[in-house]
Amino acid sequence: MNFQGSRRRGEDGIAMVIDFLLSNARLVLGVGGAAMLGIATLAVKRLIERAGRAADDEKVEQKMAESWEELSLVSASPTMIRKGIEGMVMKHVAKATKQQKADLCQQLQMSSLEEQPKPESKSKRLQLSVLSLQERLQQYYHTRAALSPHEVRTAQSLALDICTEIQGFLHGRHPDMPLGEMSLGGSLLDDLQVVTADHACLLVPLQLEASLWRLIPGEETLLTHPLHWMVQRVNLEYFPRGRSYWDRYLVGGYLSAEAVVNMFSKSIMETVNWPSISSTLDCIVRPILGGPNLRLEIKHGSENIGAESSDQSLFISMLPLLREGDVVLTAQPELSSPWFNAWHLSLYPWETQRLAQLDSADDGCRRHTLQILKAVCRLNPALRPLEAAPLANLILHLSDSEGNWSESSLHIRFQQCVTELIGYLEQGALHSYFKPAVNLLSGLSEDQVDQMGFMLYCAVSEPEILLI
């Protein structure tokens, strides 16, 4: 390929090389190769942008040198060195941009004479350039991640109203059903929800007789999965079947999570007069039927949340659960598939409690960091498959080796989280902090891992791309 022609031919040449390499990167090179190409391309892009913004020839040469130095990150990737791809990419990129570098200097001289930047836009650009990563993280938290107190109160109030209506209905329709006091749970209650207040959990505790039921840890069952517990009916020789209300949902001598969910689906989702509740609460409430979850969608009244957000929905998930000490089991058959009768051990209470304890002990920013990471993953399509649990466990693992979690070190911990996450993705495993046998990345596909690795590798040299 000939890149020694005119400026236009040079631009076409580099575009052809980069388009070819990037379009085939993930197919041929995998996560590491594609990520290296992203870093190289990003460095070239910054070279061009910096040269176009420079004010004189000396600054042009200086900023070009800085941009080329960023390509040294390619050498820092051990996967790339082993695969021998570094030489190929550097050869093509250097050859393609040799002519481009000379043309940029000429273009700079012409553009500086033809057009002077507007003072207002120049000052705005200068303001952005002087922001440190620490300042950008704080700005991102306050403008994109954190929820306003009014939004949180509105969502919590609406969820509590729904909770009261459902509990009243169950007490009237099924007075003999042994249930505990329903309550809200999840990130909305724990001040860990980000971007928008659009989901909440309604906890529905089942009351079991201690002498009739036994909670069996997953490691002690035939399933051998730490998160898939069984609830066994015991003492049948002394207390025959029928003595407990929940005996009607037994399958093979065990309380079936799927049978309990199906019961609540018929008793609540398909039976409650939702139009009447909608009229009472001045909102639109409708059940989401046909799936394994017990979910409600609530559209707020315009006077409650503002005309600009009147189309926003709040989704409430009902979670039947069992408590014994600090163990919380939830009836979520989609999480224990294909063993639909098993109960899911929720690690969320342990994780949030541990983060709160650590932050209270040293006035740290772990929860603050978690909120920023959650917002970044939610707003970035490539990182969206990464849920809150892996991010929380990432911070817990990092807390064991890093003691300084003050607000002033937020930018350092954020960059460490990105680097650590790349390592976990390369290994294909991020083990649970409380249950090391559980791999929190097992639900990700190979393509999702490739896309996340590509994005995070690029963010090593340019962490700001995650804060757009």
UniProtKB/TrEMBL annotation:
Q: Enumerate the InterPro entries for this protein.
A: Mab-21_HhH/H2TH-like, MAB21L/cGLR, MID49/MID51, MID51-like_C
Q: Where do the Mitochondrial dynamics protein MID51-like C-terminal domain residues begin and end?
A: 152-350
Looking at the record, the residues that make up the Mab-21-like HhH/H2TH-like domain are: 365-452
**Pfam family for this entry, one:** Mab-21_C
Q: How does it sit in the membrane?
A: Single-pass membrane protein
Tell me the compartments it is located in: Mitochondrion outer membrane
Keywords assigned = Membrane, Mitochondrion, Mitochondrion outer membrane, Nucleotide-binding, Phosphoprotein, Transmembrane, Transmembrane helix
Identify the domain of life.
Eukaryota
Give the signal peptide, or none: none
* Keyword flag Mitochondrion: yes
One Gene Ontology term, aspect cellular component: mitochondrial outer membrane
Share an example GO biological-process annotation for this protein: positive regulation of mitochondrial fission
Which Gene3D superfamilies does UniProt cross-reference here?
Answer: 1.10.1410.40, 3.30.460.90
Q: Where would you find the membrane-spanning parts of this chain?
A: 20-44
Q: What is its main location?
A: mitochondrion
Q: What's a Gene Ontology MF term here?
A: nucleotide binding
Does the UniProt entry include the keyword Metal-binding?
A: no
Q: Which PANTHER family match?
A: MITOCHONDRIAL DYNAMICS PROTEIN MID49, MITOCHONDRIAL DYNAMICS PROTEINS 49/51 FAMILY MEMBER
This chain's protein is named Mitochondrial elongation factor 1
Gene source species: Amphiprion percula
